[in-house]
Amino acid sequence: MENYLITSIIAATLAAGTPLIIVAMGELVTEKAGVLNLGAEGMMSVGAVVGFLLGFSGINPLLAVLAGMAAGCAMSLVFGFLTLTMLANQVASGLALAIFGIGLSAFIGKSYEAAPAPAVLPTPVPILADIPFIGPAFFNHQSLVYASWLLVVGVIWFLYRSRWGLVLRAVGESPSAAHAVGYRVIFLRYLAVAFGGAMAGAGGAFLSVYYTPLWSEGMVAGRGWIALVLVVFATWRPLRVVFGAYLFGGVMILQLFVQGAGLKLDVPSQLLSSLPYLATIVVLVLISRNVSMIRLNAPFSLGQPFRPDA
């Protein structure tokens, strides 16, 4: 019984951390290109409602997630036009995008509040899923959980092992130098912004199609903001982002277990609900206290506009 409980908590933690990993990896690539997009919450919300609408209609869940990705990507391109072409302030534009996305998703999904969509069953990994304890905990998940692991590997390879990853990081460090040697800085930043938006949409669609197959206003519940925090306080290191995402997921699952088990604690339920956010921020602040390391890893031109010479 005890092993089953631990296995269930681990499995639930991995599922809860998956949308954060997907969104944070997209934001990481965006920021490595020197662009600060604070609109993750809004893009996740729109991706969630679009994905749910297709999932609710009976379309293949993966196609529903692709639709959510397209919606998030479209919103990010609006942000890209404002900030990269029109040189609007990135912080103000990102906050406006977040507010707009939250409101738009609430409007679109109003008539579908609490309507359940078909549940997506786990996809066990052959042989590995049969390993005692380890199999049910790590290899009996929905397909997007495995995809998030591949995404992390892909982002690490792209940023640190590929030529174009080096170019993207160069654009984030010194766009003028990258432009001087012939790279299309604005185009590359558009691609990074589009990727970040697509991942935010995918993270939102995972919530409404896979994780809890229903739509309700505010179901993203601050995960977009947490993903932004993860990237910064993890000092732009992908593996630290993964650690922070699973930390958030683990604390969330534990507080749900405490409330669901009906344990008598002299603690307000609101405080228990806030624990995942508090724990994630506190731990990430502690591991990022090395200011010199933050400065070393932060893209030098992050948030700074760039206009190529005519």
Automatic annotation (TrEMBL):
<keyword id="KW-0472">Membrane</keyword>
<dbReference type="Pfam" id="PF02653">
    <property type="entry name" value="BPD_transp_2"/>
</dbReference>
<feature type="transmembrane region" description="Helical">
    <location>
        <begin position="267"/>
        <end position="287"/>
    </location>
</feature>
<feature type="transmembrane region" description="Helical">
    <location>
        <begin position="243"/>
        <end position="261"/>
    </location>
</feature>
<feature type="transmembrane region" description="Helical">
    <location>
        <begin position="38"/>
        <end position="56"/>
    </location>
</feature>
<feature type="transmembrane region" description="Helical">
    <location>
        <begin position="143"/>
        <end position="160"/>
    </location>
</feature>
<feature type="transmembrane region" description="Helical">
    <location>
        <begin position="91"/>
        <end position="108"/>
    </location>
</feature>
<feature type="transmembrane region" description="Helical">
    <location>
        <begin position="6"/>
        <end position="26"/>
    </location>
</feature>
<keyword id="KW-0812">Transmembrane</keyword>
<keyword id="KW-1133">Transmembrane helix</keyword>
<feature type="transmembrane region" description="Helical">
    <location>
        <begin position="218"/>
        <end position="236"/>
    </location>
</feature>
<dbReference type="InterPro" id="IPR001851">
    <property type="entry name" value="ABC_transp_permease"/>
</dbReference>
<keyword id="KW-1003">Cell membrane</keyword>
<feature type="transmembrane region" description="Helical">
    <location>
        <begin position="62"/>
        <end position="84"/>
    </location>
</feature>
<feature type="transmembrane region" description="Helical">
    <location>
        <begin position="190"/>
        <end position="212"/>
    </location>
</feature>
<protein>
    <submittedName>
        <fullName>ABC transporter permease</fullName>
    </submittedName>
</protein>
